[in-house]
Design brief:
The protein is mainly alpha-helical. It contains 10 helices and no strands. It has a single domain, classed as Glycerol uptake facilitator protein, CATH 1.20.1080.10.
Amino acid sequence: MSEFSAELIGTMLLILLGNGVVANVILKGTKGNSGGWIAITTGWALAVFVGVVIAGPYSGAHLNPAVTLGLAIAGKFAWGKVLWYILAQIIGAIIGAVLVWIVYRDHFNATTDPDHQLAVFCTSPAISNSLFNLLSEIVGTFVLVFVIFYFTKGELGDDKTPVGLGSLGALPVAFLVWSIGLSLGGTTGYAINPARDFGPRIAHAFLPIKGKAHSQWKYAWVPVIGPFVGAIIAAALYLAFN
């Protein structure tokens, strides 16, 4: 498997299972309806686990443009591969979101609230405040990327070892994402990943979802810019300490 295909498939599975648990919890008539925040955060953590298991040996399992950027800034990843990885992640996220729609198509059609439909695809603030919504995404992604640096620190014995979420295995990263979701995710839904939000939002815009409304593009910059800023801060702080 190539690095590109590993990032694409890993991100596709991440979104399929992550957005899938959201669909199961909030769409009308599902077996998991009203399962709650614990179900969603646990499902996302396990989705990360699956994506990392698949992509880790081949690409390092970034699965997140903010992770890719942060690793490049810290000198742990080649700048020449950054855009290639990000493209794979966005494509994978779009495919994953489309698959969720296919699996839950009848439940999307049965759900009359367009905000609930949109929530399966992308994040939105619990209280709309652009500054603090942005800060939430910055802080959450900072924690993600900063801790990842210490997962990988001292573990890369040769240049052939892929660097990313999978550098120490999938389980530590799954617990990290689970912790971020439980502790910091209540404000914006913790995108902490530009591809995770942007790719599915694109899918929502073009899919023929019965009764859907807008894709909230006015908010879409927050879960894209916030994670990038958080990753930059994490990388700068890591470099200052090491």
